[in-house]
Amino acid sequence: MADGLVGDSVEQGGGVSVGVDAGRVRQLWHLLEPLHAVMYYAPEVFEEAAALGYATDERWPSYFPFRAAPLGAVGVESVASAFYSFSPRMVAEHIEPAWKTAGPEAVLRARVTGIDRLYRRLFGDRVDGPGPAELAALVRRAAEAADTAGRPLAAANAALEWPEAPHLQLWHAATILREHRGDGHIAALLVAGLDPVESLVSFAAIGAASVERFESRGWSAEEWAAARERLVTRGLVDGNGVATDAGRALRRKVEADTDRLAAAPWQALTVTEVDRLVELLGDFWVAVLSSGLLPSENTLGIGKV
After folding, report:
1. Mean pLDDT score of the chain
2. pTM for this one?
3. SS3 assignment for the chain
């Protein structure tokens, strides 16, 4: 990892606490992210969104309010800042009418109802078995240990009341941890000097996903080209938009910083408990990815079955 920023220890409160290494931190993200993200693609959740009055012919009209609802009825500037890589125009298109359609409290209830229905379909009888309860207890401990200072989306989700059912606690904990990581990722991008559109151009430049996939974030062709030119000037991409060695090194540093900033919550678990968590997550991760709900190409670099 770049600059030795991620290793077998993580800084906490001015000291150093031995815990999970960088590979484990990234593995845990890869296993938990689909359990959170599947909400934005699930027919059950779209049905709940439609009942509130949101259009469901594409995912964005419900994605923005469902993800932003923990923040309250915030405006375009706050959502664009917290989501970072989306064009403010795209945010405005969906957030400006969002709270006129339904308030944040109704949206929060709808997303819990939707994920309950979805998980029951995907996991079947396992939902009410011992696996989700043990799994939820472990992930919840990590989520409750997350320091949310300077992390608006993680803090907003952490402030919500915990659901009672273990499978819903699992989703809620996964959501807190993924937003905790996402908030840290934005900090890493800022340190790297990558603005919202540059962050996408530089990620596409290393082949994380196609340019077309990243362009779904609402930036114009002119904005994309201008960002590419800025990165060319910095020596980070070539004229064809392919990352240079310096560009690849910078992206490695961003990912290393993101892993480091995401590591602290996992110090709440022992190495044995983390091993058990990974073991328990396997079947649920496979069930989500095998459902076909998640796109085969995504902007996160998450692996597939």
Report:
1. 90
2. 0.91
3. CHHHCCCCEEEECCEEEECCCHHHHHHHHHHHHHHHHHHHHCHHHHHHHHHHCCCCCCCHHHHHHHHHHHHCCCCHHHHHHHHCCCCHHHHHHHHCCHHHHCCHHHHHHHHHHHHHHHHHHHHHHHHHCHHHHHHHHHHHHHHHHCCCCCCHHHHHHHCCCCCCCHHHHHHHHHHHHHHHHHHHHHHHHHHCCCCHHHHHHHHHHCCCCCHHHHHHHCCCHHHHHHHHHHHHHCCCECCCCCECHHHHHHHHHHHHHHHHHHCHHHHHCCHHHHHHHHHHHHHHHHHHHHCCCCCCCCCCCCCCC
